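Hi L.,

As promised, Nitrate reductase:
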Amino acid sequence: AIDPTLRTTRTTCPYCGVGCGVLATPDGSGGAAIAGDPEHPANFGRLCSKGSALGETVGLEGRLLYPMIRCKGVLERVAWSDALDHVAHRMQHIVARDGADAVAFYLSGQLLTEDYYVANKLMKGFVGTANVDTNSRLCMSSSVAGHRRAFGADTVPGCYEDLDKADLLVLVGSNAAWCHPILFQRMRRNKEERGARIIVIDPRRTDTASDIDLFLGVKPGTDTALFAGLFVHLADNGALDKDYIANNTSGFDDALARARSIAGSVTATALATGLSEQDVAAFFAMFRETERVVTLYSQGVNQSAQGTDKVNAILNCHLATGRIGKPGASPFSLTGQPNAMGGREVGGLANQLAAHMMFTPPEIDRVRRFWKAPRIATHEGLKAVQLFEAINRGEVKALWVMGTNPAVSLPDADIVREAMKKLELFVVSENVLSNDTVEAGPHVLLPALAWGEKSGTVTNSERRISRQRSFLPAPGEARPDWWILSEVAKRLGFREGFNYKSAAEIFREHAALSAFENDGSRDFDIGALQSVSDEAYDALVPLQWPAREGQSPGERFFANGGFFTNDGKGRFVAPDVPALRSETNAGRPLRLNTGRIRDQWHTMTRTGLSQRLGAHLPEPFVEIHPDDANKYGVVDDSFARVTTDYGQSILKVVVSERQQRGTLFVPIHWSAMNTSHGRIGALVQSFNDPFSGQPEAKATPAAIAPY
Ligand code: SF4
């Protein structure tokens, strides 16, 4: 039971992957006072604008508060038992008729680890399909694939402390000043107090690139060429750690030969990337001469049809210099969402099983025995874009969406919306009564607890597990996602595996699976927490994995080798020659780049409730270079029509030198619910990375004209 008086609760911010600790004090009338948690090692008391405004977003306006079933086209309130019976009955019918692969879950990096665990277990172990994917596919799955190729596991070798200790911080495809603000402040403090240098590599000159040491405005899609050039430069200028390479890695010669063919000199790198030779040489020299380098990469790298190769081109440079997993020296993937990492840990991606295990025969068998699973999935499921394509073809007939808004966020979003209308069973678990996905016509709406009401764990970008704790009472009939899933599982006949009484019980099982038959060959292991009591779980302080039984938690990875590949060696990967998947042409002469703004989160269902946050950039816009504005006749502060082969939008024009010639930038947040024109997913092409399945979101050919 929640004490509604002024008791302060330690919890974690529900927005970005920094995972800041929050102190929340209910105000007794449904709101809460919010402060940063000085004891949380992610933020030491600091919060950014979004985190600070959380108290303004916890009201019940627009909340979905009871289950609903569509009856003769209209959603009607029903009892929980009726809604759950209906979902289970329809799922059972479709599986019996069309097989398990005809049903699918589409999850979210907003879910808690315990929710994710139950969803994954139900589908992969009991229903018998791996059609469980998540919006994290759109966010960091190329980093996952790159890590697996290089390290043999999805391991993040670095930690936030490295940002304080590095002498050079290289940000690639990351507007951290807006998207990971508390971490960026930490980097800036390092610069001010220790003289660390900062390099930003990005086609846009974002706020992150203000007052730094070097800005490299690369042409879209050329990051691989830049890091291939760097790899060659390190090899030709005596900067390799030959002992580290010889003792701990494989594939060096092939990867270097490929890098030479892509960008074998400073001149070739400059030509490939559109940079000046002087800037390329300056970057190479800084990287070469600085032992403590952290390279941070985010969506500008991941959201690409060659995202995995970009990740590996970066990792190659760190493996070649042995700068990995050491204090102040490591590659570092910045995750977008609050629990993208927790989702990865439980297997929330369609190509993973659970606890970082994959669809290999021994690991399938291990998970099957642990779960006592009657119908374990034996092959990978459909990744996000593939999943909605299969729905559109009529192959997947039942979909359950939890805590995400794919009608806005997926590429080619109009097709996604149309596909949803073809579903025989369409279930949405949500906090809100209305968003674009809810408007797409689900047959069943299930009210889930929101941030502040639900309780469980999340994992941030540095592998740190923190508690999200409830500090507000459950409103209406809203329930935890794990409870809703478990109730459906029981109705499907799986009472034995889903008789959970609490999130703590689920967490213990998740921790036990991570340690099950793990002789140290799997990176994700939190076995030390498998017997945690309810009280200890409730009091859990933020801790980094691994947390193996009998060992202190939070070891660094790979400083001395010890990779998770079959031979224990880190792998250099020869990337493909960089090339964008689509061409510009006379009708579509520009490249459309998408991204976030400072004060909004995803599709604004929470941040949109705060007037303060809305004041920063109040309407959807398109940013364009002054030369392009002249060329295409659009004027600052007027409206323009942006058109791609997939859709069009009317947007406010912002003319800015920040934008590279030949490119446009549009924010992702607005939807048909808050503007008739800002639903950007409908403009974005649907090309996926071949290794990760992550869609390209940064380079759709586009045109602009005055409106
Ligand atoms: Fe929340 Fe991220 Fe801001 Fe921290 S940096 S307060 S986690 S949005």
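The mean pLDDT is 95.

Thanks again for sending the construct details.

K.
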